[in-house]
Amino acid sequence: MIFLEVKNIAVLGAGAMGHAIAELAAVSGFNVKIRDIKEEILKNAMERIKQSLEKDFKKGRLKEDPQAVLSRITATLDLKEAVEDADMIIEAIPEIMDLKKQVFAECEEYCREDTIIATNTSSLSITELSKALKKPERFIGLHFFNPPKVMRLVEIVWGEKTSEETVKITEEVARKMNRVIIHVRKDVPGFVVNRIFVTMANEAAWALEKGEGSVEEIDSAVKYRMGLPMGLFELHDLLGGGCIDVSYHVLEYFRQTLGESYRPAPPFERLFKAGHLGKKSGKGFYDWSEGKSNEVPLRAGANFDLLRLIAPAVNEAAWLIEKEVATAEEIDLGVIHGLNYPRGLLRMADDIGIDKIVEKLEKLYEEYGEERYKVNPVLQKMVEENKLGRKTGEGFYKYGRGLYEFVKVEKPKENVAVIKLNRPQRANALNETFLKELEDALEWLEEDENVRCIVITGEGRNFCAGADIAVFAEGKVERMFEFSQLGQKVFNKIEKLSKPVIAAVNGAAMGGGFELALACDLRVVSSRAILALPELNLGIFPGWGGTQRLALAVGVSKAKQLIFMRENIDAKTAYDLGIANYIAEENEFWDKVMEVAEKIAEGPPLAYKFTKRVMFHGIKPELEASLFMESAAGGDIVLSDDVAEGIQAFSYRRKPNFKGR
């Protein structure tokens, strides 16, 4: 079958989403006609697109001349002119069912019979919208996330009559726009991402109503321990100036379509009816009057049970899997790229244990009797089959050698292996699971007799941003001590490994990322890389060997300067200080890495093994005792007010105010 090749796209609606989609389409090489009902709206949209393109060009994010991109965009008030030669129409007008249906019916009068008609709706039924068309098979949901330039996710939503051809053409367009794609194979309320988001937010409001935690406690646990960009209540107060009304309407829609159990929790209902919609109205879950800032305290949520929110969300995800709406992988891609989760929801579930998820749901159902807490058959079957997650080797995912969440292992050459730190959406920040996977990958490659040299590098534009700060929000000295010792154990393994290990520092290596690079035998550094130990900005100090290995590399005085002054080290400075062994321009970086790795791989394995061992024990005999002292001191400082202030300040992008306590 020969599918339609999309070259011309019509975007209907020039508001916040419409003009952003039009810009994205034009940057991706499509010819675009953008249509709205007012000349003023169109002029404003074209000016915003122009400014955006020029800004991206100046910053190097756009390689093509902005005028060349603009030449592919035409603004028009005439619907017929917009759609008559369009291969695809993308609608981005207000979320009003009847209005959208009217526009789609008009489009069908003017466009070709093979034109794909897509809607950017975030909530309305695709099947219901398609009833306005004589040919519903060409209708599909193409849900972009706001802002599209930053949020790469799109949900491709299938209506009951959407054809396979329409799906494939739409997917190809999304790929050309460099989107992260998830398929929503059945038209269900909330699709995938908003179904998870609104469910978790509503559960937070129910927990608040039942006295299981305060606004600050719940938000603190979500923001710092779970690692979401904002607390759920904080987000509702700030997104778009406040979106309590939006979630309330979505929950009312859930109530109508999914049942009474999905009704808005009382806090949402009370705030909506009182007109307290968030910061824009002066009050929401927080009081924003008189310029209040309402920072969420770091340790307020140390004792809140995050399973209270995670378990119901996992239950909804299981429902989506049971109904064949989306796969586990797609759900996780959705929450990572659509909600900025630090990792996939179902990966979290596998780490927690499916049995514990089920146990929590059963307790919630016993206590509150709500249908939404009934354990989904997918979860019940997983428990029956002992697919409990990471601890049994299988849950939503399989685990074992090479089956990693955060690590990729590749072999570009028979005798060279590459370990990629693979958490680009979090700048490859290291959490406990990540460190354990890195340790396992090192052991695996050490056992492989064909591998003579190992390269560690970062996926994306960063090498590694260091430690995930979630552990600091737990407020437990023993957890911090264990986390510190785990990192040191893994980095010591690199130093003691029988095979040479190269750090290919492809981008920023901050904090623990720099410490990881220091633990490697050699460092090949990209000309764009930056290395630093900025821990003192957070009120902490380097805890994975930075105080020791950096001093050995550059001397005690220089190490103190770099740590105390939190100085960024560029590639040339790193080379001059003896930290970098080689520097390479970005376009030549990987060739240089492989040149060094292959040269090493040609050498004698036994000699490497004993050279590393002799140098470790000869030059660094006190290292392990010193590292233990690092961990112990880190445990002493973790509960200080300065650490809480430092991390909060970092989270809110302000200068910390340390008090020395």
Describe it for me?
The protein has 661 residues and is of the alpha/beta class. Helix content is 48%, strand content 12%. The protein has an 8-stranded mixed sheet with strand order 3-2-1-4-5-6-7-8, with helices on both faces. A 6-stranded mixed sheet has the order 9-10-11-13-15-18, sandwiched between helices. A 4-stranded mixed sheet has the order 12-14-16-17. β7 (153-157), α7 and β8 (180-184) form a beta-alpha-beta unit. The radius of gyration is 27 Å and the shape is globular. The chain starts with 7 loop residues before the first strand and ends in a 10-residue tail after the last helix. 50% of the residues are buried. The mean pLDDT is 93.
Average pLDDT score = 93
Count of beta strands? 18
Query: Which strands sit side by side, in order, in the main sheet?
Result: 3-2-1-4-5-6-7-8
Radius of gyration: 27 Å
Task: Please summarize the sheet with the most strands.
Answer: 8 strands, mixed
Helix content: 40-55%
Structural class: alpha/beta
Report the principal-axis shape.
Answer: globular
Counted by DSSP, the helix tally is 27
What low-confidence regions span 5 or more consecutive residues with pLDDT below 50? none
**Strand fraction:** 5-15%
Distance between the termini: 70 Å
Which labels suit this protein?
single chain, 661 residues, alpha/beta, eight-stranded mixed beta sheet, six-stranded mixed beta sheet, 18 strands, 12% strand, globular
SSE blueprint and pairings:
Elements: E1 8-12, H1 16-27, E2 31-35, H2 39-58, H3 66-70, E3 73-76, H4 79-83, E4 88-91, H5 97-110, E5 116-119, H6 126-130, E6 139-144, E7 153-157, H7 164-176, E8 180-184, H8 193-209, H9 215-226, H10 232-238, H11 244-258, H12 266-274, H13 307-322, H14 328-339, H15 345-352, H16 354-368, H17 377-384, E9 407-413, E10 416-421, H18 432-447, E11 453-458, E12 462-464, H19 477-496, E13 501-505, E14 508-510, H20 512-519, E15 522-526, E16 530-532, H21 546-554, H22 556-564, E17 569-570, H23 571-576, E18 582-584, H24 589-601, H25 605-619, H26 623-637, H27 641-651
